[in-house]
């Protein structure tokens, strides 16, 4: 295909003001994700594939489908296409040191029978974050059978959850895992030297589930720590404020909330105090 052809395709799928405004408000209502004008090209680019596979000629038809009772499964495709899923193993490594020293190790010194520990990775994307948590957990809580320990890993994007549940990553991704953990928890795949799989020992610790943070949450028990990193940044301030308050409700007093490097609770919620850089402890 030559460049002229490429151009005509882009023109064919021009995202007009009216349709862009419809998509912005649909997504904000559905997911809390706020898209500003400078995301218009990105939205257009990511949805063109959907229009093609639905055999649609323009965005007006696509918006009409979303606005109709037949929208059904298309909402999931739309959300999967729009979310930004960038992640990595041991992203912001100081959080994992903090988890080890401030959450897990202190629990070792209190020793009720089979202590219960629950950690939530909210907005876990393709799973590198919950697997990083699981590696620290498996290393600290020995032997693991002596603990009732689980990680809940949730995301709105069903494609990402499938990748997390499979636990298969490129060797390039796995290079971000510190060597001591890599040796212990990462398995080679037969006939595929470009990919690796996470050990069953880790996979047993994690439950991957679809959860839209913008909706009602089904969980009953409280958490010792919640990781919600690089997720709230896509929401507006009132949505962030409400979300952080709901996280306070879901944490034990003394539990920790880990946020992304560009996110902060300062001036947002007085139920937390700072514990470390972008780590907050629930105090009330
Ligand atoms: C940039 S990734 C962050 C991944 C990981 N927490 C990290 O910091 O590496 C943001 C994730 O938030 C998810 N997300 C966005 N809106 C959401 C919502 N309303 N409910 C649940 N997950 C959402 C996206 O699907 C995406 O996988």
Automatic annotation (TrEMBL):
It catalyses: L-glutamyl-[protein] + S-adenosyl-L-methionine = [protein]-L-glutamate 5-O-methyl ester + S-adenosyl-L-homocysteine. SUPFAM superfamilies: Chemotaxis receptor methyltransferase CheR, N-terminal domain, S-adenosyl-L-methionine-dependent methyltransferases. GO terms for biological process: methylation. One of its GO terms (molecular function) is protein-glutamate O-methyltransferase activity. Its EC number is 2.1.1.80. S-adenosyl-L-methionine binds at residues 85, 87, 91, 129, 155, 212-213, 229-230. Residues 8-284 form the CheR-type methyltransferase domain. Keywords: Methyltransferase, S-adenosyl-L-methionine, Transferase. It comes from the Bacteria. It is an enzyme of class 2 (transferase). Methylation of the membrane-bound methyl-accepting chemotaxis proteins (MCP) to form gamma-glutamyl methyl ester residues in MCP. This is Chemotaxis protein methyltransferase.
């Amino acid at each position: 295909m030559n460049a002229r052809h490429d151009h005509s395709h882009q023109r064919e799928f021009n995202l007009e003001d009216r349709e862009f405004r419809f998509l912005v408000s649909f997504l904000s209502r559905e997911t809390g994700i706020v898209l500003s004008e400078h995301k218009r090209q990105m939205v257009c680019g990511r949805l063109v594939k959907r229009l093609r596979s639905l055999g649609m000629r323009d965005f007006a038809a696509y918006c009409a489908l979303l606005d109709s009772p037949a929208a059904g499964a298309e909402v999931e495709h739309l959300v999967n296409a729009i979310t930004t899923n960038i992640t990595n193993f041991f992203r912001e490594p100081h959080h994992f040191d903090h988890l080890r020293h401030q959450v897990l190790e202190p629990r070792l010194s209190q020793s009720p029978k089979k202590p219960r520990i629950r950690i939530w990775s909210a907005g876990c994307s393709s799973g590198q974050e919950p697997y990083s948590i699981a590696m620290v957990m498996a290393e600290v809580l020995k032997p693991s059978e002596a603990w009732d320990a689980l990680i809940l890993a949730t995301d709105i994007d069903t494609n990402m959850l499938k990748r997390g549940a499979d636990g298969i990553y490129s060797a390039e991704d796995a290079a971000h895992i510190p060597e001591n953990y890599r040796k212990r928890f990462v398995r080679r795949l037969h006939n595929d030297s470009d990919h690796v799989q996470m050990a069953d020992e880790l996979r047993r610790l994690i439950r991957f589930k679809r959860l839209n943070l913008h909706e009602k949450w089904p969980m009953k028990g409280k958490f010792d720590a919640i990781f919600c990193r690089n997720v709230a940044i896509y929401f507006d301030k009132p949505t962030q404020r409400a979300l952080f308050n709901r996280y306070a409700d879901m944490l034990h007093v003394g539990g920790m909330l880990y946020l992304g490097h560009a996110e902060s609770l300062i001036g947002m919620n007085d139920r937390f105090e700072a514990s470390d850089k972008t780590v907050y402890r629930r105090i009330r």
